[in-house]
Amino acid sequence: MPRRDAPFYILIGLLSVQVAYGLFWAVNDITARMGLWPDPLLAAAFVQSLTVLQEVFFFSHVVMNGVALALALMERRLALPVFILSFLLDRADWIIMGGNNLFSNMVDADAWALFSFTLQGGIMALLVYLTFEGRLR
Predict the structure, then answer these.
(1) How far is CA 72 from CA 2, 57, 60, 81, in A?
(2) What is the pLDDT of residue 89?
């Protein structure tokens, strides 16, 4: 049985932050669709600015984050390819979002992208490390 030590616990912590980060944005998306934003016109405009393909990429990414966390908790090496897929889906979403002027004016997209990319890079590095060290089976 692989030993659980600091790198493993850091990985679980970072993956948990990644899951919470994705859920934060998913709740914003869903509440906009439900008309629960304080400004219903902004919510409607936001929803209309999103494409179906982008939403598929985004929500698939959110689900894959949870799957990657579950696999990591089970100490499965499949967490690495699942997270890589999640990362690619997220980057595709961000590329599409880069052309969304409404979203760019609503939030500091550059700061969020930097946070997300840094977090995902750390997770990927730990997944690679733990996989090649044999700690994920």
Answers:
(1) 12, 22, 18, 11
(2) 97
